[in-house]
Amino acid sequence: MTATMTGKKPDAEAREAFLKEVFPSLSLEGIEELARISLAVSYDEGELVAQEGSYASGIYIVQSGLVSIGKYASHGRDKRVLRFLAAGEMFGLEAVLLERELVNVQFAKTIVESSLVFFERSNILAFTKDYPRLYADLCKWLAREVIMLEFKLAREAVESIDRNLALLLIALANKYGEKQKAGTEIDLPVSRQTLAEMLGVSVESVMRGLKRFRELKLIATEAGRILVKDFENLARRARVSEFYLSIIEETL
Fold it and tell me: Using CA atoms, how far apart are residues 126 and 109, in angstroms rounded to an integer?
């Protein structure tokens, strides 16, 4: 991992433009100050950004790349991927917004080479005193995460693997998909193991579910990529409202 602080050079200007997209409610002065207290951090593919149970030092925002967020099982090293973070998405809010022990409640690991913007906890808290709107924006993001996790827990307790897999594929396609003539290709380097960890099932269950969807001509798979061919019928299997789908896509 490499971490660098930059002055107001082209990189700093690009970071200011990025932060303006993430926090459009902030004034230009606020964006400049926010960029000033930030730290640009880069990680290689498959590198651990934060370990579950380690000291939580602040908030990370993904500027480029892709990061997986998850938890380890209470026994052994089995892990569960809860969501992905793409550009503009963040983690580490619990340590900043909650009065609790400063410990990471989840792990964060890069899927591909990624660049992130980091804000140390005391710096971001001091900033929100002058710019309370940012505090409100961070609370909204945390609320979306809570809604998403509650929804996932409820579905996984009562729904079949087919319905949950259909929902996951729709959300991934809507958020990360690229339109093709034959459908929407999920342009995301996600292994079958990662899909299984996100659904809380075995890899074999995911493989059987994908096979059923192929046989129904809902999807096609090739070289590890997934092409969603029939959104309408896949959505019928997912049986999800637009509200929950939007929440899942925002926090997936």
Answer: 28
